[in-house]
């Protein structure tokens, strides 16, 4: 099968644009720069760290006349970045911002409070490009292949999008599969299975939905890489993806504030890219392990030093897979998406998310406004919400003690809750979280 009609001409256009872009001097120069930073270089990382710290103390009001040793720098949280935004900006000797091409990256936590990060193309963009290209090389992704992307899309993202950096690819951007949406069904029918795919990218739940789509229709895709971001992937979903596409899933760990930071090796551990984003696991009062604290080594316009991500992990472990970088076992949880029980106890959302994916939900969002009660939002075209809620509530009731735990409620005619930047998080937590350890394992997927 091949692309036909509108899709065929859009694809041809994207290929022509990609060729022109790759041939340009600007892209060639950037590619060269990325190429030079591809090797993991601990020594260069040390130099970057020292340069960043010196720069911060000399040029950034928040750190002025501050400490010189890295371990003496204060831990910085989302609230610090939000409330003291201007104090984090780097200034020249005359007190003005230094010349450069800046971009403002506005992100948001699940509580909807915006955090803005100022970066330049030379810094923030470069670290992401280098890390992405390291993954491409590690997994054997070849230049020029097609990327099937079911990740976050913006309003006007075209279906076929030429992307020249870090390595040339035409992205085929699809929304999460939803059998109740005729537009999405038509897009999938016109594209999926009609061309070979070099790489699949997207959020975990959408990659699982794509695998289910292909498995049910006998569509064979054989990508070199499957890169899933953001959410935890339940074991059952991962098995479906890996069986359907004949390839292991690679989880990419990223935060809004520090960009790409680590990826998963063949042994299932996350390896940080220490020479670009320096990790620390700082013990906290949770049950074992500690908080993941990151320093973005190229973040000079707005230094992100010892940033408390809200994610948790056990202490680093040795890994003999051959990849460099600090390695950790999987995340212990993303603290800011915890669920609050009726007795103000705290639960990891992952078991519930796994159960929702297993129930075949095309897309969903969980919103919590009151302890012990979760609102489930699904696309309006999907009719199975009530049944799913009934089934999951029955299973939840079996595992919670009296006056503890939570139950689901299908939010009638609910619209998905977006952050200011238009991002849709799978869990929107509107409550303050009690400082108690997170519980897991309340549902088996
Ligand atoms: Zn490893």
UniProtKB/TrEMBL annotation:
Coiled coil: none annotated. InterPro entries: ANL_N_sf, CapK_Type1_Caps_Biosynth. Gene3D superfamilies: N-terminal domain of ligase-like. The keyword Ligase applies. It comes from the Bacteria. Keywords: Ligase. One of its GO terms (molecular function) is ligase activity. This is Phenylacetate-coenzyme A ligase PaaK, adenylate-forming domain family. The lineage of its organism: Bacteria, Bacillati, Actinomycetota, Actinomycetes, Pseudonocardiales.
């Amino acid at each position: 099968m091949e692309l036909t009609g509108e899709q065929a001409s859009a694809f041809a256009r994207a290929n022509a644009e990609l060729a022109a872009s790759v041939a340009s001097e600007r892209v060639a120069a950037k590619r060269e720069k990325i190429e030079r930073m591809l090797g993991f270089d601990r020594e260069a990382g040390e130099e970057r760290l020292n340069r960043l710290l010196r720069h911060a103390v000399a040029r950034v009001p928040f750190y002025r006349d501050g400490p010189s040793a890295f371990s003496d720098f204060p831990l910085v949280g989302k609230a610090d970045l939000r409330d003291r935004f201007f104090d984090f900006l780097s200034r020249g000797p005359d007190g003005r911002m230094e010349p450069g091409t800046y971009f403002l990256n506005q992100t948001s936590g699940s509580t909807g409070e915006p955090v803005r990060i100022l970066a330049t193309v030379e810094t923030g963009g470069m670290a992401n490009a280098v890390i992405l290209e390291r993954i491409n090389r590690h997994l054997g992704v070849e230049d020029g292949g097609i990327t099937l992307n079911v990740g976050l899309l913006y309003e006007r993202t075209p279906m076929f999008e030429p992307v020249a950096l870090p390595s040339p690819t035409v992205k085929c951007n699809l929304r999460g599969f939803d059998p109740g949406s005729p537009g999405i069904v038509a897009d999938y029918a016109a594209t999926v299975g009609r061309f070979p795919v070099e790489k699949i990218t997207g959020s975990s739940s959408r990659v699982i939905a794509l695998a289910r789509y292909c498995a049910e229709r006998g569509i064979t895709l054989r990508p070199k890489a499957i890169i899933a971001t953001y959410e935890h992937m339940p074991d059952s979903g991962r098995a479906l993806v890996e069986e359907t596409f004949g390839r292991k899933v690679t989880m990419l760990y990223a935060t809004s504030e520090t960009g790409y930071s680590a990826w998963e090796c063949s042994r299932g551990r996350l390896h940080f890219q220490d020479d670009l984003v320096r990790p620390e696991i700082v013990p906290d009062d949770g049950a074992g392990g500690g908080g993941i604290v990151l320093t973005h080594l190229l973040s000079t316009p707005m230094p992100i030093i010892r940033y408390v991500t809200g994610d948790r992990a056990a202490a680093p472990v040795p890994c003999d897979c051959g990849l460099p970088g600090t390695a950790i076992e999987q995340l212990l949880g993303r603290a800011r998406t915890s669920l609050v029980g009726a007795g103000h106890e705290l639960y990891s959302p992952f078991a519930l998310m796994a159960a929702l994916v297993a129930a075949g939900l095309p897309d969903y969002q969980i919103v919590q406004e009151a302890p012990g009660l979760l609102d489930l939002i699904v696309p309006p075209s999907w009719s199975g919400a009530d049944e799913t809620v009934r089934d999951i509530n029955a299973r939840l009731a079996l595992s919670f003690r009296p006056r503890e735990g939570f139950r689901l409620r299908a939010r009638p005619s609910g619209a998905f809750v977006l952050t200011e930047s238009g991002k849709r998080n799978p869990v929107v937590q509107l409550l303050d979280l009690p400082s108690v350890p997170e519980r897991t394992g309340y549902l088996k997927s």
